[in-house]
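Justification of resources, computational component.

The compute hours requested in this renewal are based largely on the per-chain cost of generating structure records like the one below. Each record pairs the submitted sequence with a full structure-token output. That output is archived, and it is also reused by downstream analysis tasks.
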Amino acid sequence: MERMEAVYHEKAVEKGSLVISACGFDWIPAEIGLMFNSRQWVSPTAPNRVEAYLSLESDKNITEEEVEKLKVEIQRLGSKQDDGSYKVTFGLLFHDDRYANIFEALVGTLRAAKRRKLLTYDGELLLQGVHDNVEIVLKPTPTPTTAV
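The structure output for this chain reads:
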């Protein structure tokens, strides 16, 4: 969704339109319902506010395989630091064509890797454009110690 917003943003601005990624099954019924009800009722009983609640759960968890692929891509695109870590900006990772073909949910994969303490970055949810310059740091891989 974020990539589509980025691709079509300029065209939308030229035409006076907006690209909205949150317009899905959960928003349309609420909007239509509010429009219908507000036209049916007469003041002072017409609603001026509607609250809607939606709860969704995914049965797909970010797998270790996806996190490992993310690590490989950060190493490919990033710069190696003296401590063995790799740094890459969110924008570079987000706009990389090879990466885009591998992953559907960059933000979710980043958050899963962060929860596993494999990488760090400022903030919780990174958004294209706003957070393009945020540095993502892939922590160095610990070297196994050998017993003597």
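The mean pLDDT is 79. The helical segments are 2-14, 28-40, 64-77, 90-95, 97-102, 106-115.
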